[in-house]
């Protein structure tokens, strides 16, 4: 984990100057100060939420206290203390290969008041985040997005994909394994910690994962103020034959008119082992009085479809989920382990400058990358945008497919060699929103 605390980093002066030229003020917000509540109101409004109660605001404060909050103010407004732009960020880590993590500058809460949209406020805030992260030594920034149209212009690109899954239980007779461990309901008391403990082990093994946080797990557990479904939350753990928690499913059941065919909504299903995955999925699919099981942020091709008699009982809708932005090419490429040796000269184009350049990328038999600048006059084998490099970094997509789409180019042999080398040992997945 990065030793730098983002909360101590100064405001980006370029963004401050750009916003000042437009009559706007750029400022850091202290989560324990008076500016916190208006900041939190602005974020809720930006994501189309209602006015939060005191309890909800206090609950959010527990998370936002750990983040770098930045706001944009229009001091001529009727509510001059309520920001017209918000963003928060924090240092976290991204799993790049099983058991291997790298520092990540995570960005969230990007909102601009509808009264102030399309005046360049988001541009100033995102520029400020990227410059601050790069200056602090982060090789990667990341976020999850409401719309796929926003962040490409700042060099972000999808790096992990996830499926929303819906399963018709009447067609999904279980044909998968029957693990030897056991399932037990667990109380809501202490549930958030229990979810977090399982997830923390799962996320370290899965490329694309980032850690959750207490507030995220309180939300999943149904104990966050304002959760209208909170009382309905149930949780079941899978314990292996040694009695160790290896997986957990947290769910609610929504009423349907047909009492024998309710909807079971999976809030989280985290499995540390194939046994835990099979046992928990079997549990939800065979739950009495349930006709449909829905789960979000599952693997692109969810393994459960191999465990039921009729795979078409499982509908998986694929979406881009985590977007990464490479800020330092050599360090980003060196952050993961590779599957096959490689020797290639790669040019990366980045209109914002952070990642612009050309490098020799050499991967030896040990799977480690050594990345050094290309000297003037050296031949280049492949070219791609910083966006394309972000998309292939974890192996979630193939560079040959991006070449077919015209956003990478080069010698076919070199492109194919990159595909072999970048192939992930496990399909990358981010299983939370951040
Ligand atoms: C998305 C949002 C933050 C953009 O803020 P903004 O201040 O209006 O954006 P800017 O004026 O800085 O726009 C910068 C560029 O992005 C484009 N852009 C902004 N929002 C866009 C959107 N939703 N879709 C496509 N393009 C968008 C602008 O047209 C502009 O394009 P240009 O580079 O060609 O000039 C704002 O619309 C918002 O708060 N939306 C609701 C909350 C949300 O979805 N936030 C994102 C969370 S991941």
TrEMBL record:
Acetyl-CoA binds at residues 110-112, 118-123, 146-147. It comes from the Bacteria. One of its GO terms (biological process) is aminoglycoside antibiotic catabolic process. Residues 24-177 form the N-acetyltransferase domain. InterPro entries: Acetyltransf_17, Acetyltransferase_Eis, Acyl_CoA_acyltransferase, Eis_dom, GNAT_dom, NAcTrfase_Eis, SCP2_sterol-bd_dom_sf. Signal peptide: none annotated. The active site is at 151 (proton donor), 434 (proton acceptor). Transmembrane segments: none annotated. One of its GO terms (molecular function) is aminoglycoside N-acetyltransferase activity. Gene3D superfamilies: 3.40.630.30, SCP2 sterol-binding domain. It holds the Pfam family SCP2_2. PROSITE patterns: GNAT. Belongs to the acetyltransferase Eis family. Homohexamer; trimer of dimers. This is Putative acetyltransferase. It comes from Microbacterium proteolyticum.
